[in-house]
Design a protein that fits this description.
Elements lengths: L20 H14 L3 H7 L4 H13 L20 H6 L1 E5 L5 E5 L4 H13 L3
Antiparallel strand pairs: 1-2
Helix pairs in contact: 1-3
């Protein structure tokens, strides 16, 4: 194996079956600093080269700065959020598509606890 591909830092993301964007960035940064080709790095760390290719392409295609679009409001504006104006409350969507409707006068501590419980539930 090429010596320039040896990396002293061990990254736990390499052992994960699924990577988050932050995991992929960490692995790809390590690859770039190694000086090895993508194939050499994949072989050295027992990674699938196609996985590295896909993540590299995906991350390279991401815009580096947020894009904003002009918005022009037309007609009268209700000061309440749109969902509240229609239903008398606001709707919060948490993981797994679960929805919580909150009406005015809600208890913020209770809402925080409900959201924590719903986020912790397995899908």
């Amino acid at each position: 194996m090429p010596t320039h591909c040896r990396v002293s830092k061990k990254i736990t993301a390499m052992e994960k079956p699924y990577w988050r964007v932050s995991d992929a960035r960490e692995v790809l940064d390590l690859w770039r600093r190694s000086g090895a080709s993508l194939s050499e790095f994949a072989r050295e760390h027992e990674l699938c080269r196609n996985r590295l290719d896909r993540w590299r392409d995906r991350l390279d295609a991401e815009p580096t700065t947020p894009r904003f679009h002009r918005v022009r409001l037309v007609g009268a504006v209700d000061s309440r959020p749109a969902t509240e104006a229609r239903t008398g409350g606001i709707e919060i969507v948490v993981s797994g598509g679960r929805r919580v409707t909150v009406r005015s006068g809600f208890d913020p501590d209770l809402l925080a606890e409900v959201v924590r419980v719903l986020e912790a539930l397995a899908c």
